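Dear colleagues,

As part of the handover before I leave the project, I'm documenting each prediction I ran so the next person doesn't have to rerun anything. This entry is a single chain, and its sequence is reproduced below.
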Amino acid sequence: MSSSAPTTSAPTTTGSGPSALSRWFGFRTPSLRFLYAWAIADLAANVLLVVTGGAVRVTDSGLGCPTWPECTSGSVTPHPAMGIHGVIEFGNRMLTWVLVVVAVGTWVAAMRYRPHDRTSRWLATGIALGVPAQAIIGGITVLTQLNPWVVALHFLATMLIISLATWLVYRTVPGAAPQARDDSPMGRLAVALAWLVYAVTWVTVYLGTVVTGSGPHAGDEDAHRNGLDPRMATQLHVDAVWALVGAAVALILLAVIARLSWRRTALVFGAIIVLQGVIGYVQYALELPETLVVLHMLGSALLMVGATALVLHAARFGRTAAAAEPGDRNTGAALPATAGAS
């Protein structure tokens, strides 16, 4: 992938004159700001999928549609006998079509954006292909009666898509000039710590799925658990969390002391860890109330956004545009609230 940053921006008009429909949706000659908006929508939709998937689990609605790709035998919609569980699971499945629309819109915008940006195209393609892959994994999840290891794979696949979507958002921030790679000892240490935080975040998220697979919220009252001791699984997850805290604190201190330009990103990530930790301990003390479990899953998605942003900022990954497009006043634009750069 090329990380070079073109210095020109996309044209806004063509000689032939775009149709009213093309002008309205902006796909004929998409601007960088247009592509950026679709990238944010892609990221938000996948984070929303984590929340709705959490709702399915805590309400025991994982088999509200007991087969796939149909909901019930001979019908794509839930049978009234499935009650609220069928409605919840069917609603979560319908979100897939929202993801399809957003992913395709992002892909078309990335493909039509000028000048060509290979990295943005590959990212948009990977995210778009992730949607049908997720649907297939979700189908296997149902057909295996919510096998906890397949459920974990379903969640981790969403985390990967969220990480790629975060990269695409970072890549397409309007008006964000690329910076030269910092090869000083501090810069190299920051990159190493950022990658460490990213890796430990993945370990922590994975162990969280192991805890879920051993606990009460398996998606259905009769679903199999993974057979592990919930207390032991939880302790292992907590150990990973504290390892993440240590790595994040080291990175935050380095960013603040060295006054690195992305120190605000590190501080925001630290705040997410604190909030996620509080939710985790409280939900454990209260024996896993449904609302806190869903919030904890949302926190996992935000952690992945933040960890990805740290690597992108620390390693100075290239961006699509070196200068603001006409009308872009926000020359210090950043990632969405979870991962802004100063």
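The chain has a mean pLDDT of 83. The longest helix spans residues 83-112.

All the best with the project,
I.
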